UniProtKB/TrEMBL annotation:
This is BTB domain-containing protein. It comes from Mycteria americana (Wood stork). The keyword GTP-binding does not apply. Residues 411-478 form the BTB domain. The keyword Lyase does not apply. Keywords: Repeat. PANTHER family: BTK-BINDING PROTEIN-RELATED (PTHR22872), RCC1 AND BTB DOMAIN-CONTAINING PROTEIN 1 ISOFORM X1 (PTHR22872:SF4).
Length: 572
C-alpha cells in the first residue's frame, strides 16, 4: 500500500526511509508477479490443434510455448534445454527463420537458444516481442508501423535485439497490441513504440513511434508493476493499485466514463478505493482483479465479454461475479472477445465469444486452467500468455499403477507362465477383474498361493492381459491378439474383447485372413467375423490360395463357401 494514504504526521527522514523500503518491496512484488504469471501449470499443449503436428518426443521436450497468429497458425516453443523452435504459416516472417516459408516441421531459432525467455507477446501482423531473464528484448515479424522498435518499417525476418533506450534497462515483461508494443522494466519504467493512430503509445500525439519511448505524463514518478494491451489501447497498473489507460476508447475500454481517445495515460478514477493486482485486455474490453479477489470489467460487450448478463458496452468499471468465490486469475487476449477467470478453489469460468456463441454470464467449465478456455473456445485459438508446461515431479493414480506393473519391489503375487514370472498386486486384480475377485474370495488368506501357475495361455498373451488391468491399453501383434481374445472370452472381459477385435482388424492380411475368420467364429466375435468374412470375399482369389484356407476344417469351409455364394462371390 502506498505511503500517501497514511495520514499520520511522520518525520521526513522516517518517511524517506519507509518509501525506500516500499520501493524495494514493490520490486520484489513485481518479480514475484512475473514468476506467478508464468508459473508451472499442468497443461496439455495438444489441446491447441497446431501442436498435433509434433511427435510425442517433441511434445515431451517442451518447457514453454505460445500459439499466435490471426488463425492460430503459428507457434513457438522452448525446450528444457533452452532451445527455441518455431513452426507454422509464417505470415509476415513472424517465425523469424530468415525466410518467408511456412513449415510444419519445427525449425530452430539459433539466435534465441540459451537466452532463457521469460515473457513473450505478439501482435496482429503478426509481430513478436519477447524478453529474457537477463532483461534483453528481441523482436521480429511485421513492422509496417515500426512495432519492432528498430527505427524502420522493414519486416524483421530474424530476431533482433531492441536497443534504443532499453539497453540499460532490465525488462521483465512485454505486451503487444495489434501493431504497437510495450516493455516494462524491473524498476517500474514503461516504454512503448509502434502504431499510434489513437494515442496507444502514450506520447501525446498520434504520430507513430519508431523506437521505444518512455511513457510518462501521469505515470511520471510512479512505479508500473503490470501492463496489458488491447488492439489499439494500453493499460498499466502501478504499485499502489491504481490503473491507467490510454489510446483508443471508442467502446469505453479505458474505463474513463466516456468514449474519447486518450493520447497520454489517464487514471481510471472509478477504481478509486480498490487496489488492482492484475489487468487483462481483450480486443476492446478490459478486466481488472483486486487484491481482495474482486473482478471488474468494462469496454466492448458485443459478445457478452464483460459477463454482465447483457451486451451493452460499459464506459466505466462494473463489478462482476459478485456471487462467486474469490477470483485469483483473469485472462483475456487482444485478438479475441473471450474472457476467463479462475477462483480460489480452482474453478474456471468463461464468457464472451465462445466458439461463435455469445455467453453473457460467466459459465463454469470443467477446465483446470484459464489457458484451456482459449485452446478450446477462443477465436482464434491462441494462447493469452507464454505458457509454462513444466511438469511437476508427481504421478497421477493411473501413472502410478502403470509404473508398478510387474514390479518385484511392491508386488504381493506372482504368475508363472511358460517358466517366466509376472509380478502383480492382488488388490489391483480384485478391483479390476471379476475373474480374480471370485478367485481370491475362494481362498482363505493363509491358503493364498504366492505363485499361480498358468498353462492354458502363452506368456505374451497373459502378460498383455495383466498389463491391460493396470493401463487400460493393449500392445500386441494381431496373431497374439487372437489368444488374448480367447482369454477375454474365458474371463468375460467384454471391453478387452473389443480391443482385441480392433487390433486384429488393423492387422488382417491375405495370409492370415482365414485364420482370423476361424478365430472370430470360435470366440463368438460377431463383428470381427463379419469383418474377416468381407475381407476374404473381397480378396477371394488370393485367400483361396493360402495354406490357411486349405487347412480349415470342413464345416467352417462349407459354411464360408455357402455364405460367399449367397453374396455372389462366385459369379462370372
Amino acid at each position: 500500500m502506498s505511503m500517501e494514504i497514511i495520514l499520520l504526521p511522520v518525520d521526513e527522514s522516517v518517511k524517506y526511509t519507509f518509501n525506500k523500503l516500499l520501493v524495494l518491496l514493490q520490486q520484489c512484488h513485481l518479480t514475484c508477479r512475473n514468476v506467478m504469471t508464468h508459473s508451472s501449470i499442468m497443461v496439455d499443449v495438444g489441446k491447441w490443434p497446431i501442436f498435433t503436428l509434433l511427435s510425442p518426443q517433441e511434445i515431451a521436450s517442451i518447457r514453454k510455448a505460445c500459439v499466435f497468429g490471426t488463425s492460430a497458425n503459428e507457434a513457438i516453443y522452448i525446450t528444457h534445454n533452452d532451445e527455441v523452435f518455431v513452426f507454422g504459416l509464417n505470415c509476415s516472417n513472424c517465425l523469424g527463420t530468415g525466410d518467408n516459408q511456412s513449415t510444419i516441421v519445427p525449425k530452430k531459432l539459433e539466435a534465441l537458444c540459451g537466452k532463457k525467455i521469460s515473457s513473450l507477446s505478439y501482435g496482429s501482423g503478426p509481430h513478436v516481442v519477447l524478453c529474457t531473464e537477463d532483461g534483453e528484448v528481441y523482436a521480429w515479424g511485421h513492422n509496417g508501423y515500426s512495432q519492432l522498435g528498430n527505427g524502420t518499417t522493414n519486416q524483421g525476418i530474424t530476431p533482433v535485439q531492441v536497443c534504443t533506450n532499453l539497453l540499460i534497462k532490465k525488462v521483465v515483461e512485454v505486451a503487444c497490441g495489434s501493431h504497437h508494443s510495450m516493455a516494462l522494466s524491473f524498476d517500474g519504467d514503461l516504454y512503448a513504440w509502434g502504431y499510434n493512430n489513437c494515442g496507444q503509445v502514450g506520447s501525446g500525439s498520434t504520430a507513430n513511434q519508431p523506437t521505444p519511448r518512455r511513457v510518462s505524463n501521469c505515470l511520471q514518478g510512479k512505479m508500473v508493476v503490470g501492463i496489458a494491451c488491447g488492439q489499439t489501447s494500453s493499460m498499466a497498473v502501478v504499485n499502489n493499485g491504481e490503473v491507467y489507460g490510454w489510446g483508443y476508447n471508442g467502446n469505453g475500454q479505458l474505463g474513463l466514463g466516456n468514449n474519447g481517445n486518450q493520447l497520454t495515460p489517464c487514471r481510471v478514477a472509478a477504481l478509486h478505493g480498490v487496489c488492482i493486482l492484475q489487468i487483462a485486455c481483450g480486443y476492446a474490453h478490459t478486466l481488472a482483479l483486486t487484491d481482495e479477489g474482486l473482478l471488474y470489467a468494462w469496454g466492448a460487450n458485443t459478445y457478452g465479454q464483460l459477463g454482465t448478463g447483457n451486451k451493452s458496452n460499459q464506459l466505466s468499471p462494473v463489478q462482476i461475479m459478485m456471487e462467486k468465490e474469490r477470483v485469483v486469475e483473469i485472462a483475456a487476449c487482444h485478438s479475441a472477445h473471450t474472457s476467463a477467470a479462475k477462483t480460489q478453489s480452482g474453478q474456471v469460468y468463461m464468457w464472451g465469444q465462445c466458439r461463435g456463441q455469445s455467453v453473457i454470464f460467466p459459465h463454469l467449465t470443467h477446465f483446470a486452467c484459464t489457458d484451456d478456455v482459449f485452446a478450446c473456445f477462443a477465436t482464434p485459438a491462441v494462447m493469452w500468455r507464454l505458457l509454462s508446461v513444466e511438469h511437476e515431479d508427481f504421478l497421477t493414480v493411473a501413472e502410478s499403477l502403470k509404473k508398478e506393473f510387474d514390479s518385484p519391489e511392491t508386488s504381493d503375487l506372482k504368475f508363472r507362465v511358460d517358466g517366466k514370472y509376472i509380478h502383480v498386486h492382488k488388490a489391483v486384480l480384485k478391483i479390476r477383474c471379476e475373474h480374480f475377485r471370485t478367485m481370491f474370495q475362494s481362498y482363505w488368506n493363509e491358503d493364498m498361493k504366492e505363485v499361480i501357475e498358468i498353462d492354458q495361455f502363452s506368456y505374451p498373451v497373459y502378460r498383455a492381459f495383466l498389463e491391460y488391468l493396470y493401463t487400460d491399453s493393449v500392445d500386441l501383434p494381431p496373431e497374439d491378439a487372437i489368444g488374448l481374445l480367447d482369454l477375454a472370452t474365458s474371463y468375460c472381459e467384454n471391453r478387452l474383447k473389443k480391443l482385441c477385435q480392433h487390433i486384429i482388424k488393423r492387422g488382417i492380411t491375405v495370409e492370415n485372413a482365414f485364420s482370423l475368420l476361424s478365430a472370430a467364429v470360435r470366440y463368438d466375435a460377431e463383428d470381427l467375423e463379419e469383418f474377416c468374412f468381407k475381407f476374404c470375399v473381397n480378396h477371394l482369389t488370393e485367400v483361396t490360395q493360402t495354406t490357411a484356407f486349405w487347412q480349415m476344417d470342413g464345416p467352417l469351409l462349407k459354411e464360408f463357401i455357402a455364405k460367399a455364394s449367397k453374396c455372389g462371390a462366385f459369379k462370372n
